[in-house]
UniProtKB/TrEMBL annotation, chains A, B:
Annotated ranges, domain HTH tetR-type: 6-66
Keywords of this entry: DNA-binding, Transcription, Transcription regulation
Protein's recorded name: TetR family transcriptional regulator
Residue ranges of DNA binding: 29-48
Keyword Cell inner membrane among UniProt keywords: no
A GO term for molecular function: DNA binding
PANTHER family: HTH-TYPE TRANSCRIPTIONAL REGULATOR YJDC, TRANSCRIPTIONAL REGULATORY PROTEIN
Pfam families: TetR_C_13_2 (PF21993), TetR_N (PF00440)
Length: 194, 194
DNA sequence: CACATCTTGAACTGATCAGTTCAGAATAGA
DNA sequence: TCTATTCTGAACTGATCAGTTCAAGATGTG
């Protein structure tokens, strides 16, 4: 069982991310991480760093992975802004519908715990939410909204996207989640018609 | 220091509620509660029960207190539905703006932690969110929306209300929070115009 | 075979946690 | 004054936590 790397770093990081995602930072112990990754306590410590460092890596992995998907969804915003925003929300809805993945959202969960988290972790979470808003704003401006409209709808859409995390954890049905984003998409259609 | 009750139960419960609200269940220790309430460890145990019981009481106190305010805000829905929903969100926005109170929302925070909470606590949180939706739905129907529209807008508004908890924790400005609810209020105006 | 590399399990430290108990101090009312 | 009630501080249990260390075992490479 030695001589060469026995585990895939990315797989382990993935498992750790999902563990943090489901239970949150406070309720995830090193033993939980050890169980989730299949790695020994010592191995985690020596190759992934301590709990804080590992959590930061997981946050970044999460932001990068889904950030790409959100970007891809919004890429058609210039020609079809409504479809783009719908696709944006679909990224989240599909993630929630995936039985392999936890409900909720790692960023939202982390944001809610900001008062008890380290400043660096808090900063990463805030930054991730900021990126989301900027992504949406750029797309909406490309889609033809004014600066003001784009700003307002971007922060609204980012918030609604986070709300899906709360509502899914509280047991909302897929139909209800769809209704939540439906109102927002309709509001965008309306804004574009003006 | 004895012979008669030395502390006001409601005051103590209030302090405990705020402590849970700010730091969440997992990150609140009995020592934190002792400090917050000014009560001895033993006194908490003997007069407020164990951590789980106390948390349930705090959840109920929170739901009752703000439930009343939400109801009052929505009471004019039949004649002025848009103003009613705006007043509904104002309850949350004023709570967030109050420097005496934590950001966020106890219900939202609890909902996010459902996977690691006891079933009874999870049930209380879900119930509270369910009430919020029913409150909104009744108001919107009274305001003249169809059943379908009222259902969709109610779950949307309840979600947006929860999103304010996430966004305020992530450092969103009052103007941004206002923009978030603005889009929803506009969507309601539009629905009523049809 | 020998060595460098990797992995493991176990242990230990110092800290915190919830829950519980209890003796004693303080006090209000009879 | 006597007594029932209330409060307090301290202690203890059994558990978990993060962080760290290390010796022993396993394996691939040269």
């Amino acid at each position: 069982m030695a001589g060469k790397k026995q585990f895939d770093m990315d797989t382990a990081l993935d498992a750790a991310m999902i563990q943090f995602w489901r239970d949150g930072y406070a309720d995830t112990s090193l033993d939980d991480l050890s169980r989730a990754t299949g790695l020994n306590r010592s191995s985690i410590y020596s190759s992934l760093g301590d709990k804080d460092t590992l959590f930061l890596r997981c946050l970044d992995l999460y932001a990068a992975r889904y950030g790409e998907k959100y970007d891809a969804a919004l890429s058609c915003a210039a020609s079809e802004p409504v479809a783009a925003v719908r696709a944006f929300f679909d990224v989240t809805l599909e993630r929630i519908a995936d039985p392999e993945l936890p409900d909720g959202c790692l960023i939202a969960q982390t944001a809610m715990a900001i008062p008890v988290l380290s400043p660096s972790v808090a900063a990463h979470a805030k930054q991730a939410l900021g990126f989301q808003r900027l992504r949406l704003r750029a797309a909406l401006k490309a889609g033809g909204l004014t600066d003001q409209e784009a700003e307002a709808l971007a922060v609204h859409a980012a918030a609604v996207n986070q709300s899906l995390a709360v509502m899914s954890r509280a047991g909302a049905s897929p139909a209800q989640l769809l209704a939540i984003v439906g109102v927002t998409v309709d509001a965008l259609s309306q804004a574009l018609r003006a």
